[in-house]
Design a protein that fits this description.
2 copies of one chain form a homodimer.
Chain A (H helix, E strand, L loop, with lengths): L3 H5 L16 E7 L11 H13 L2 E2 L2 H13 L2 E9 L2 E9 L7 E7 L3 E8 L4 E9 L9 H8 L4 H20 L9 E8 L1 H8 L20 E3 H4 L8 E4 L9 H10 L7 E7 L2 E7 L4 E7 L19 E8 L3 E6 L7 E2 L1 H13 L15 E5 L10 E4 H25 L6 E7 H6 L2 H6 L11 E5 L1 H11 L1 H13 L1 E2 L8 H6 L13 H13 L1
Parallel strand pairs in A: 2-4, 5-8, 8-10, 11-19, 13-21, 14-16, 19-20
Antiparallel strand pairs in A: 1-3, 3-4, 5-6, 6-7, 9-10, 11-12, 12-13, 14-15, 17-18
Chain lengths: 524, 524
């Protein structure tokens, strides 16, 4: 897992131009005529009528009526903030004077491990600032299943809800520098997996991990900050990107939205691999998806010297018969271990250099490969990759390959039909592309057809914050995507077992890898 | 002021048939298919879709999502309660099984002195039960102005808000007998004057009594029980009948609604007299209104032996040259004083019997009239009506006459154009009709054209609870009625001074009184 501040900068590279903006909230400048003996309408009614003249039907919550009275009695020029509710507008704030340009919202990516909050200028959609941190729930459970277990303890769900709110409120506090105060933030949108959404909303996640895997809610609609406990404008609308189900959440819908694969005629493949992996395939006619545990290899979990992408982690590795091993570490710190991207490099380089075979086995007798010699490491011990480490990574790769086969079979397509590839999430951003192709984790497409989406969960959240048509598209996507359950699929295990070759059982699917192998072998 | 339990029964006489019911909330019976591996939609989405199939777009508040999950996991047959929000429905309750016939709402009349709550069967609109009590705010201020003053004290507004809520919650508790619990009540509507609405909503009423008399709000729209603090379903919609302005409130709009004077071609006059008096005149083309202090005479305020309509109050009086004075008291208790209706009788009888002249003056030398001799009274002292008492009542009558003249002049009509008369409120119900005509407080129309509306504030609340078209009509009425300010009207004081004759300066406006006078004098 990448370090939170690294993840937070990902969004910059892909801020789509959203065209006509139609954000969750609008600010409307009004010039209210003062009351006269012949025009003695009440303050609230006067304001509502003026607003309705500009935006259509508006409801006014009781909580704002006193404020309206105070603002209207001192000032004729006022700025109203209105929020899109189900089918109309609700007033959520009224400020004296013209504050129409001071319009702030939040795009939030809640990952199981990392949380990123982007402060958005809602007058134009630009990212003004970002803040990231680990999800405060991590100490209560490292992964999704352990969170669900924790929620079943007495008080556990409330604790998890409060913890993620605390994380968000802390990040919001960091984003707000004077004169901006959190209560002037008008809206928020959230990209997160289904479990994270349930925990944020205080909804029991137990059914997410229990057959038939029915969430409490897939599309929560537009809630308010006070419903959840976000310390922004209490009436601010909060929109969670909708889920397909327990295993395909709003974070994945965000990614598909950002990729625009649902607009194209050609078939695209979308992959988001972390502890869990999600795959979406399709085009503007159809979309299918599956999900499953990807194994801990890329998270640096059970690997001998595996670690998260923190300072001291070996993140890039190359191997040359002449110059030997070269590596880099995050932060250029003394090497402490190997993170996911380093491990993928190691496996690719071992394979290209013939140190492991196509079944990812070391030659007879060899048990491990030294990446960082003891003299250079932080601990004074060799940092190695063992056969077991390689087997773990091969299991991840094999699961992705097998899942893709199931999807292809389900829609009657061939691998040659896939024309574009999108890599989402932090792994997608940092995983070395060529090595990921070499080991067969990614397909071997023309490189111009392979796109890293970066933090597409955050970018998707920004898009739905700013655009009603994107919200509608997200909801249509969630309703359209057909989910295939792998656990109950009879052919998945067969495909999984037979997909543990480098780069693939059928090497002709990997022409560029085949060419590099042949080139290397000629050099040897 | 009538006693609360008396006022509470008024509604029975005029429960209009509302035709097609379209109440604030609906109950919808649903048969939900159980989730299957191929239909694994989330609980909330499954319910929402089933509901939308029957009623159109529905939003689901976060507060109900857990409940939906619990109910849906045990039961396929469920009853949803949905509330009409601005432009769509919101789910406010979900119960297992078929509870569609158990659908309860409240119609509430909040008077400055008396509060009446009616429990309504929302499946048909029938009044099931009623409860009444004095408004708990009375000890904090007897009348509207003293309440407004109390609200200006530190904490005063919050105290007044809590006090009226406490009164309502106590009455609601009395209405609910097992198995009905308050939280199963789905909706409430309220008829009240503008100040009472402001205090109920916790809105500063200061501007209501300060030029230019601008309320905070005239039409609060649909709020929720939890906004206000009513201990019914917290999400229950609460609809306050809209006001025209500071002096014509939702109670008067309710009365006009119940009278249906806005449907007729002929011109009607609507009068609600209490401590304050409100007059509405018009037809389906136009409506005008005015309001003002009516003086305390009818409330038994400053009158020598005046008292409220409580046990022991003389409420009816007749006078005959032969048989002398006859009177009745409320509850047949020993006489303790005279209430408004008794005073109107006394004035009429004194006039008809020639004991006072057309200027309402006793003959030379007489200072008072004994209604109850000392031997029959509770205190052992004579209960009398003095010239000062008569002058007070004449001021009330004069104010009503003058206000009517201002309205007639403003629309260019004559008194002969008035074809129907509606007496609203508790005074309208109990005031002796013939005596009120004799003293010129009411117009002298064919008796079939004179209607007592009873507690039209409560009945109007019932109508808007049960009918969206009545809500729309109420809002249209509030927007249509033109209010004439009497205090700044240059001719009002002149008209007031010249209207202190019995029954009127122009006795030809009162043909039946003229005939009775002539008949009596022939007898004498």
């Amino acid at each position: 897992m990448s370090n939170p501040e690294q993840a937070s900068i990902l969004c910059e590279q892909i801020q789509a131009d959203l065209g006509d903006l139609d954000p969750l909230t609008r600010k409307v400048l009004l010039q209210l005529p003062p009351p006269t003996p012949t025009d003695n309408r009440a303050d609230v009614d006067r304001l509502r009528l003026a607003l309705e003249h500009q935006v259509g039907p508006v409801t006014v919550p009781l909580a704002l009526m006193s404020q309206i009275h105070q603002v209207c009695s001192v000032c004729g020029r006022v700025t109203a903030t209105v929020s899109m509710t189900g089918w109309g507008w609700q007033l959520i704030d009224l400020e004296p004077g013209d504050t129409a340009q001071e319009h702030y919202g939040l795009a939030i990516d809640i990952g199981t491990t990392t949380v990123v909050v982007y402060l958005i200028d809602m007058s134009c959609g630009a990212v003004l600032r970002r803040a990231a941190d680990f999800n405060g729930q991590v100490p209560l459970g490292e992964d999704i299943l352990s969170r669900i277990r924790h929620a079943a303890n007495p008080g556990g769900l409330a604790e998890l809800q409060k913890t993620i709110c605390d994380t968000l409120n802390r990040l919001i506090g960091r984003l707000c520098t004077p004169p901006l105060v959190p209560t002037r933030i008008s809206a928020a949108s959230i990209g997160a997996n289904t479990t994270m959404v349930h925990l944020l909303l205080g909804l029991d996640p137990a059914s997410l991990s229990r057959s038939p895997y029915i969430p409490v809610v897939n599309n929560p609609g537009i809630l308010t900050a006070q419903d959840i406990g976000l310390h922004i404008n209490p009436l601010a609308p909060v929109y969670c990107l909708p889920s397909v189900g327990s295993f395909i959440g709003g974070d994945i819908i965000a990614g598909v939205l950002v990729s625009e694969m649902d607009h194209r005629e050609e078939i695209s493949l979308f992959v988001d691999i972390g502890t869990n992996g999600e795959i979406v395939m399709g085009n503007r006619e159809w979309l299918v998806a599956c999900a499953g545990a990807a194994g801990p290899a890329l998270e640096g979990g059970v690997t001998t010297h595996g670690m998260r992408a923190e300072p001291g982690a070996v993140d890039r590795v190359s191997l040359d018969p002449v110059t030997g091993v070269r590596y880099s570490t995050i932060g250029n710190a003394p090497a402490r271990g190997i993170c996911g991207s380093g491990l993928v490099d190691v496996l690719a380089e071992l394979f290209l250099n013939g140190l492991i075979d196509r079944a990812a086995r070391f030659s007879a007798g060899q048990r491990y490969f030294v990446v960082v010699p003891a003299a250079e490491s932080a601990s004074g011990q060799d940092i190695v990759v063992t056969q077991a480490d390689i087997d773990n990574l091969m299991a991840t790769k094999g699961a992705v390959n097998a899942a893709l086969e199931v999807l292809l079979e389900s829609v009657g397509c061939n691998w040659q039909d896939i024309r574009r590839f999108y890599a989402a999430g932090a792994f997608g951003q940092y995983l070395p592309l060529e090595s990921a192709i070499t080991i067969g984790l990614y397909p071997d497409l023309p490189r111009s057809a392979m796109v890293r989406l970066g933090n597409s969960s955050g970018e998707g959240a920004r898009q739905v914050l700013m655009s009603q048509s994107k919200r509608r598209e997200a909801e249509a996507l969630a309703a359209r995507i057909t989910y295939f359950e792998l656990n109950t699929n009879p052919t998945f295990m067969d495909k999984f077992k037979s997909s543990k070759f480098l780069p693939h059982t059928d090497i002709d699917r990997y022409p560029s890898v085949k060419a590099r192998l042949q080139a290397r072998r000629r050099r040897l």
